[in-house]
Design goal:
281 residues, alpha/beta, Rossmann fold, 8-stranded mixed beta sheet, 11 helices, 41% helix, globular
Length: 281
Amino acid sequence: MPFFQVSDGTRLSYEDYGAGAPVVFVSSWALHADMWEYQVPFFLEHGFRCVLLDRRGHGRSDRPSSGYDVNTRSDDLAALIEHLNLWDITLVAHSAGGGEAARYLSRHGEERVSRVAFLASTVPFLKRTEDNPEGLPEAGLEATLAQFRKDRPKWFADRAQGYFATHLGNDVSPALVENEVRRCLSAAPFAAAEVFRSTFHEDFRPDLRQVTVPALIVHGVADQSALIDVTGRRTRKLIPHAVYREYPTAGHGLYVTHAEQLNADILAFVNSYDGSDVDES
């Protein structure tokens, strides 16, 4: 398992497979590189190089006491890209990773990135403010974090079925659900709470308005973790040139439940290159 060191001394774990044009996978909050087990083999078989990062406090990376703000996390992503000298990148980001990808593009530029895919991403802005009335109340965040601190395993377990939208017939075994909860619990509790908090408070609307590379937005209509009216549909309006896909029966865990469809949509998007595909809402 390779590691590299960023400017504050934190050692970050990453995985690097294959050759060809690189696909850089940016993981969800509380998850790490292993979450992409249904995507990596597919893209390797189609001739791509797959690069995956464990963000700080997650997976096998160091657990420092600081650096969980979005700017630092996007800088960590930039450091990996520069460490491997990657170009012609497709960024594929899930959930909170979408904010890190958006901030990377606005903070470090699009020179190395050819296209970006936002999957069930928690952008553009979750917090309710005067100029963001569609957002969620601050009290909801604090209540969630209080539950999280009281019984973190229960918090994840209570949300697991909704995460995969199993009530809509998605076939996910109890063993798989348990495995994904275990992966979430592997994140440092402090890191998980800080990333959750910073993602809630961060306004990504200016970042998304600056995206000029081809973009793909995929969101599940049944997503209980990132409500589509607060996230995916609003992101579409901020990136009007994006290819947009809604999966009617998908929840937040669409990378598992709809892996075949998702992989095909990402591949078609990558191959189209210019993002000229027709929207299919």
